[in-house]
Amino acid sequence: MAENTFMLEIVTPEQILFRDEVQFVVAPAVEGELGILRNHAPLVAALKIGVLRYKDAQGQEKKIAMSGGFMEVVDNTVRVLAETAEHGHEINVLRAKAAAERARQRLMQRDENINHTRAQLAMQRALARLKAAGVNIDEL
Amino acid sequence: MAGAGVREYKRRIRSVKNMQQITKAMKMVAAAKLRRAQERAEASRPYTDTLQGTLARLAAVAYDVRHPLLESREEIRKVGYIVITGDRGLCGAFNTNVIRAAIAAMDKDERNVQNGVIAVGRKARDFFKKRGGVDAEFVNLGDNPSYADAREIGRYIMNAYENEELDEVYLVYGRFINVLRQVPTIDKILPIEPPPQEETEEKYVDYIYEPSAEDILLTLLPRYIGSQIYHALLESKASELGARMTAMNNATENAGEIIDTLTLEMNKVRQASITDEILDIVGGAEALKKGGK
Which of A40, A75, A79, A81 is the best residue to mutate to test the B interface, defined by the most B CB atoms within 10 Å of its own CB? Predict the structure, then answer.
């Protein structure tokens, strides 16, 4: 292991999405973003829907969209458990845009039959995926 | 003419051979799918293990935390059973065994309670519909149940539990031991009993909890339910495929035996008819000889 790197593991119920050495991680914790460097103190944090950023061993910054979960840091290993997670470069932007649009329309309708919280969560997930894919969401 | 008998045998042998080809193909398909299912079960392990470990640790730290999903109820009125079977048959006694285990558990319960069934898989649904109805059904999950399926089932039971429609929930599924053995298993999933912390030499680590151990524990509970159900779905799928593989293997072997028996009988009939014909000819020739004198 290089001087300044540590292990990052992104684990979902269906697979280990990512497992490699990184230099820096920024995770979307419930109370704001949380940055992790090598030799971080042991930590367990709840994460929300959002984008996790990391700098790989070569110093390149990458993004991963995730729907909430939690993160455990111990002995220079960061393990992130998320129900779903996707690499930014693998996200289908068109589909994510369509999902965001669907959620937006659902939020606009004041229909009793529509579960507002669920629509809001769908919206957050779609936005996180767009952000991770590198789309500027202010332009939407 | 005895030729008709032989033709009949040939026809039967051909039809058994066709069946054998089908069972053989089904066996191979099940074997290939089983490998996939086992890989998926393997791939889900890191998530499940980490979640359980963290939950156990959190439960030890935040032992006084209160949450409806953790609370055992004094009065139990209705018990829910999530019965997981396959959508299709032709897998030996697999589906029946799971259903039977669920019914046995209901009968054994001596408290005066109502039972509710959450049927997963067409076989469970069809059975319990005839037997008094199901509370909810999740069918056509296919050969690759996804975590999203598990989460949906989890959402349903957590809702029913929090609305006090159900006071206890059990999972009934076939646990995969190996291709020849699948054991019907019953696990209690609600109220949640956090897994006990493992007694290992693992050094004690003083974690920082962000925001707090209680809050993290509460966000973990629904995920824990989801991962347990997902695990059961995967186990059940592997069991079903294993059972189907064994059943189809037996069927293929039985078909082979039937073919052997039929072939033997056919040859006997054919030889008997040849012998008859020879006797006829010999008899005729003798008669001619006598007549010629």
Answer: A81
The overall average pLDDT reported for chain B is 88
- Secondary structure class of A75 (helix, strand, coil): coil
Block residue for tokens 């909810």: B136
The answer to whether residue A1 sits within a structural domain is no
Cβ count within 10 A of residue B128: 24
- The string of DSSP letters for B124-155 reads HHHHHHHTT--SEEE----SS--HHHHHHHHH
Cis link prior to B46 (omega < 30° from 0)? no
Q: Is B156 on the interface with A (CB under 8 A)?
A: no
User: Strand A77-87 vs strand A50-56: parallel, antiparallel, or unpaired?
Assistant: unpaired
| Domain shared by A126 and A57, yes or no | no
CATH (one of 1.10.287.690, 3.20.20.450, 3.40.1380.10, 3.20.20.70) for B27-195+206-248: 3.40.1380.10
CATH of the domain at A116: 1.20.5.440
* B263 is a catalytic site residue: no
- Contact (CB, 8 A) for B91 and B244: yes
**What ipTM was assigned to the predicted interfaces of this complex?**
0.83
Residue contact B210–A15, C-beta within 8 A: no
pLDDT by residue (tens digit) across A22-45? 999 999 998 889 999 999 999 999
Whether residue A34 contacts residue A27, with contact meaning beta carbons closer than 8 Å, is answered with yes
User: What pTM was estimated for this model as a whole?
Assistant: 0.85
Please give the helix or strand (H or E) that residue B108 lies within, else none. helix B94-108
Instruction: Tell me how far apart the alpha carbons of residues B10 and B4 are, in angstroms, rounded to a whole number.
Output: 10
Residues 6+ apart with CB under 8 A from A86: A17, A64, A65, A66, A129, A132
Range of the domain at A115: 92-135
Using one digit for the tens of pLDDT, what is the confidence trace for B167-207?
Answer: 999 999 999 988 888 999 999 998 888 777 766 555 567 88
User: Does B205 contact A at CB distance below 8 Å?
Assistant: yes
Map out the domains of chain B as residue ranges. 27-195+206-248
Q: B16, B262 in Cβ contact below 8 A?
A: yes
- Please give the torsion angle defined by the CA atoms of residues A15, A19, A25 and A26, in that order, rounded to the nearest 10 degrees: -10
